[in-house]
Design brief:
The protein is of the alpha+beta class. The protein has ten helices and 22 strands.
Length: 532
């Protein structure tokens, strides 16, 4: 980010300003002199000709302007280096970082659960230290390595399907980066597996927590927080900094002092999303939690001395369902696909349209929003899309036909089943080519929120100490609301003439019934959009 002149303590000049000032001064001087050839004052034509474009004096002034601009750019560059949030990599790490004793965090590998088929009784040796030569590890098809974190024994019917023999294991990448965030059903072939496990293991849920080396922006943010909040004697700011430096996958750490008892510290961490889509993208993986727990929990912690009771947890996602009305162009690539988008926005609850029941993945019934319009005259195959709540994305549906069944119920037939499994309650919206941009903007909005409180700040006697740090008014607000519409206006630009938020199921995270539980975090649930 480059500062503007108004933010600086010195003036800056655009290209040509100095050149024009030099030529202006030259013209003023000529008008006060006598032409030696005529012994008369220089005429205005002679003055203009001598300073015209590509004249000798113009070329000299233009060259001086270029030289001074080069000097100015150097000054601007060094001025930026004085600011942590503007410094280039070399100054950020080699000057600011060294001054505060901070360094960029190393890349880490993704982690998650796998199904490992094996003969009952087979032992998979694990280790929370990555890498560990004694632990079982395997490789994916790309040759990236993954280590078992916790020792487990195969049992009869021990896999996630409940019928196949084996063990469900937690593994973490020995190799690092976003490529270690394996997708569901990806295979890991054992490199030093036990004799009773000859078959490859498969990923149960998408891995997360695999990130590259800390970026300049991430490092600058962490460094600025250290400068702004004094860290000392294990205060909230220091525990927050320790939590963030424990693992590069940690987006932030939230501190709840004395929430459990006097002398206790609750640390809840959020994970960087990376390349993971969906509402669980910021929920910390087992590998991230293991690393942070080991780093912060005494007596083995390298930074926290005995005796504090430190409990490290993740956060729990609370789904927020929302229905939006968007005034986008009809029948255009920057708006709705159809000239008459259907279904419409309901006038009373429920205002959205969703699947009522399914005969198959290509034949189902939908219930339109209460008060929504009928199918437009002559339309038998409207452009529709369905919301996939697992990935927080829409998928366009290949509609063959749609027609009224009875009341507010319509039959929909598809030519091809969608890539994800439709279920009763899946929300249906009119299709738009802007579906991915709107979905990504919605996900980004929820990614700016932080977890809620662990105790009720209005009634609990611990509230004066156990409030969330950093506070919501300082960083990572808790509340969801109409600010989403502002994000959409920024993303869609002039194409969005107006917008409304017609339904939102939850605006503030609920407080757990017991502070032993993890704090709640608002995440995107079911989303539907309609034309207004």
């Amino acid at each position: 980010m480059t500062a503007t002149a108004i933010e600086r303590q010195f003036a800056t000049f655009r290209r040509g300003v100095i050149r024009d000032e030099i030529l202006r001064s030259f013209r003023v001087g000529l008008r006060q002199l006598t032409n030696p050839d005529t012994n008369l004052a220089f005429t205005e034509l002679e003055v203009a000709t001598s300073t015209a474009r590509l004249s000798r004096w113009y070329i000299e002034a233009d060259a001086l302007d270029l030289v001074l601009l080069t000097v100015q750019q150097r000054d601007l560059y060094f001025t930026d280096q004085a600011r942590v949030d503007r410094a280039a990599t070399s100054f950020l790490t080699g000057y600011h970082g060294l001054m505060w004793g901070e360094f960029k965090l190393s890349a880490v590998g993704g982690s998650g659960p796998i199904d490992a088929p094996a003969v009952p009784g087979t032992i998979f040796v694990g280790s929370a230290t990555v890498p560990d030569a004694a632990a079982v590890f395997g490789t994916d098809p790309a040759g990236l390595r993954y280590q078992v974190l916790f020792t487990a024994t195969a049992t009869a019917g021990g896999l996630s399907d409940g019928t196949t023999d084996g063990a469900q294991l937690q593994v973490q990448g020995i190799d690092t980066g976003p490529d270690t965030n394996l997708d569901v059903a990806a295979e890991i072939l054992w490199s030093n597996g036990p004799p009773g496990a000859p078959e490859p293991a498969t990923v149960i849920t998408k891995f997360s927590g695999g990130v590259g080396i800390e970026t300049d922006a991430e490092f600058a943010r962490r460094l600025l927080d250290r400068i702004r909040k004094k860290q000392a004697a294990g205060n909230n700011a220091q525990f927050r900094a320790w939590g963030r430096e424990a693992n590069a996958a940690v987006e932030d750490a939230f501190i709840y002092a004395t929430a459990l008892q006097a002398g206790s510290v609750r640390v809840a961490i959020m994970q960087k999303r990376g390349n993971v889509q969906g509402p669980l993208g910021r929920i910390p993986s087992i590998g991230t939690l293991t690393d942070v727990t080991g780093y912060l929990t005494p007596p083995a912690s390298p930074v926290v001395p005995v005796p504090p009771l430190v409990v490290v947890t993740g956060v729990v996602g609370e789904s927020v369902d929302t229905t939006l009305g968007l005034a986008l162009p009809f029948g255009q690539s920057n708006g709705w696909d159809d000239l008459d988008p259907w279904p419409g926005l309901g006038t009373s609850a429920p205002v959205y349209t969703d699947i009522l029941s399914l005969s198959s993945q290509t034949s189902f019934k939908i219930t339109r929003g209460t008060g929504s319009i009928d199918l437009p005259t002559g339309v038998t195959a409207p452009s529709l899309m369905a919301w996939n709540a697992l990935t927080s994305r829409w998928e366009a549906l290949q509609v063959t036909s749609a027609g009224l069944d009875s009341g507010d119920v319509f039959d929909v037939v598809l030519s091809v089943a969608p890539a994800f499994t439709l279920v009763a309650g899946t929300r249906i919206s009119p299709d738009t080519d802007q579906r991915d941009l709107i979905a990504e903007t919605t996900e980004d909005y929820f990614d700016g929120l932080g977890p809620g409180e662990l105790v009720d700040l209005t009634t609990d006697s611990r509230a004066h100490r156990a409030y969330r740090a950093p506070r919501p008014n300082e960083d990572f607000p808790q509340r969801a609301g109409s600010a989403l519409l502002s994000r959409l206006r920024d993303s869609l630009g002039a194409a969005l003439a107006d917008s409304t938020q017609d339904e939102i199921s939850l605006t503030l995270p609920t407080v757990p019934s017991d502070p032993v539980d993890e704090p709640n975090l608002l995440v995107a649930g079911d989303v539907a959009i309609y034309a207004i």
